[in-house]
């Protein structure tokens, strides 16, 4: 008779953050929001169960060595609602999201897989539109979708279409992008205006009008990263601030590097339409998701040249220096306000706007 093994339940008492999950151990929407709750779920449930060293690094993509080559490997799932929105669709997100995760390791995506979960009853015309969007996005990103899988679930058990993409790409020699490389003195650069994707999704989902159409910034960032690396391969950190926005990306990097980040709040590029929408709804643009932006930690001696290269690229035309790394207040992000004060930019607990990717 085969041996039966009983798996031990996770030890919630040993978790590091006093979250409601300890008292009510059920999944809530905040666990998918890219903030503290998401991190605790991964770090305390999945990472210990899988026991993988590359996974333990908790980067946007894993760095692997195969046959002497350095590979970046990433996977992502997409459950956005609605399926189509100003500036893109779930198909665009599925391609660009994985391409961008690989780009944050310095790799240009070579191949993608695509897993499709369809809800019974979804119109074939909708499926066709999503597939066409994926194909078009893949051609723009110069990546091939080479394998996939399709499943159908009963009506009422999905939102029409869910997608999963995984991707691989080669990391160029001499490139080493990871949070632990950030050092005091590094200049923090963001590639453009923040908050567009999250507000675009919300405006369509909730039927809100702000006097002007707000379009998602969804785009593949591989070409922009290549332009930056052409200036110097010695960039320290790249991150695409998706779920949890710029605040989550900076907070995670500061914590991993064990240093502080000081921002100039006025230097952070927030488009007026996003600022107005967030003011009306009581949201902070720093926490709103992006799908076509990156934040870079760059050695000070290369910052001016890297910024110029970014501004010369269509996806970095509005790049801006927003802050620097400091030795003080390790693990903390602080913003200098327009009034001359300072505020702590905390990691988000969950997500202001759920289901944005």
From TrEMBL:
Residues of the PurM-like C-terminal domain: 184-329
One Pfam family linked to the record: AIRS
InterPro entries per the UniProt record, alphabetical: HypE, PurM-like_C_dom, PurM-like_C_sf, PurM-like_N, PurM-like_N_sf
One BP term from GO: protein maturation
Domain PurM-like N-terminal, chain residue ranges per copy: 60-171
Source species, domain of life: Bacteria
PANTHER family documented for this protein: CARBAMOYL DEHYDRATASE HYPE, HYDROGENASE ISOENZYMES FORMATION PROTEIN HYPE
Family: Belongs to the HypE family.
Protein name (database record): Hydrogenase expression/formation protein HypE
Taxonomy of the source species: Bacteria, Bacillati, Actinomycetota, Actinomycetes, Kitasatosporales
């Amino acid at each position: 008779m085969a041996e039966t093994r009983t798996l031990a339940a996770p030890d919630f008492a040993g978790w590091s953050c006093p979250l409601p999950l300890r008292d009510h151990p059920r999944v809530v929407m905040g666990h998918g929001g890219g903030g503290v709750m998401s991190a605790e779920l991964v770090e305390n449930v999945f990472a210990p169960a899988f026991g993988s060293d590359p996974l333990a690094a908790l980067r946007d993509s894993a760095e692997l060595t195969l046959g002497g080559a350095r590979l970046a490997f990433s996977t992502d799932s997409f459950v956005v609602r609605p399926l189509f929105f100003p500036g893109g669709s779930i198909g665009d997100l599925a391609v660009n999201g994985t391409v961008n995760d690989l780009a944050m390791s310095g790799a240009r995506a070579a191949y993608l897989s695509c897993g499709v979960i369809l809800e019974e009853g979804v119109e074939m015309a909708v499926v066709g539109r999503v597939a066409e969007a994926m194909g078009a996005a893949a051609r723009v990103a110069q990546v091939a979708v080479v394998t996939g899988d399709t499943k159908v679930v009963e009506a009422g058990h999905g939102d029409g279409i869910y997608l999963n993409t995984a991707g691989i790409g080669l990391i160029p020699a001499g490139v080493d992008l990871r949070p632990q490389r950030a050092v005091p003195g590094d200049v923090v650069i963001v590639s453009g205006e923040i908050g567009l994707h999250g507000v675009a999704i919300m405006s369509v989902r909730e039927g809100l009008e702000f006097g002007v159409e707000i379009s998602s910034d969804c785009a593949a960032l591989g070409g922009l990263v290549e332009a930056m690396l052409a200036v110097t391969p010695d960039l320290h950190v790249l991150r695409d601030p998706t779920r949890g926005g710029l605040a989550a990306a900076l907070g995670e990097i500061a914590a991993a590097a064990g240093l502080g980040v000081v921002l100039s709040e006025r230097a952070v590029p927030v488009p007026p339409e996003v600022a107005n929408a967030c003011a009306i709804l009581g949201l902070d643009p720093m926490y709103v998701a992006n799908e076509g932006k990156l934040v870079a930690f760059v050695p000070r001696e290369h910052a001016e040249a890297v910024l110029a290269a970014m501004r010369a690229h269509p996806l970095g035309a509005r790049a801006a220096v927003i802050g620097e790394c400091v030795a003080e207040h390790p693990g903390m992000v602080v913003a200098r306000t327009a009034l001359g004060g300072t505020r702590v930019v905390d990691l988000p607990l969950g997500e202001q706007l759920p289901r944005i990717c």
